[in-house]
Amino acid sequence: MTEALLQLENLHKHFGGLAVTDGVTLSVSPGEVHAIIGPNGAGKTTLLNEITGLLSVDAGKILFEGREITQMPAHERTRAGIARTFQITSIIPSFTVHENAMLAVQANVRSTFDVWRSAAFDADIAATAHDVLEQVGLSARAHLPARELSHGEKRALELAVAIALQPKLVLLDEPAAGTGRGETERLVDTLTALKKRFTIVLVEHDMRAVFALADRISVLVYGRVIASGTPNEIRNNEAVRNAYLGEEAA
Asked: Which end of the chain is more exposed for a tag (fewer CB within 10 A), N or C?
């Protein structure tokens, strides 16, 4: 059996008397898209914050490539190969689309901002950034300031910044949030192509996107995983339908 790339073992996190992560155990295999779904307030973003080290856990273990990283600082987890996008885009609006991608490529080769002037003229970095933008459908928009992109294009740019780091694991926090039907369909097409190259954990409310992309799905309700399985297993799980999916799974 292939060893899990990411393994969460009995994670607990409390804010005061509220259990936001309540004994979460799940695994993510190399090369899969593992979706985490659930109602608002279920603890999905908190769980991503624990995986990336932005939040400490109260109890339990996080293993990445078989190595425990529970106490590892967030920046070291990034270096280990974990990249993350957020519910709110975190790009630099005044920089061009290409410059945003170049900064990510530059960070991946561990350059510093002090060498930005030389990096801007570095053909390899520029070419790699252009290639990343092409992968997410933004190469034609490379010259524009990032603030001029549509909301969906900004989400695509944030995805480009994440994959420019050449991660082993990409965590996507509601990438389709706020996008229209057409932009969501383009995002699904982009992620379908990228899933051949990256292991992805996807937090998403758009069930069309989830069922189109996911190899496995875990359902989080009140901080607990109530079910994990293939899309068909989750779609037909009565407890999941009652707790969350309802008519969306029809």
From this structure: N
CA pair distance 68, 229, nearest whole angstrom: 25
Structural domain contains residue 98? yes
Q: How many domains does the chain have?
A: 2
Show the domain range for 119. Answer: 82-166
What is the dihedral sign for C-alpha 197, 65, 63, 32? positive
Picking from 240, 170, 201, the residue whose alpha carbon sits closest to that of residue 26 is 201
Strands of the 67-68 sheet, one edge to the other: 18-28, 6-15, 59-64, 67-68
Give pTM, 2 decimals: 0.87
Question: Domain containing 62 — which CATH number?
Answer: 3.40.50.300
Place of tokens 């990034």: 78
Q: pLDDT tens across 72-124, in order?
A: 999 999 999 999 987 556 689 999 999 999 988 887 775 444 545 554 457 88
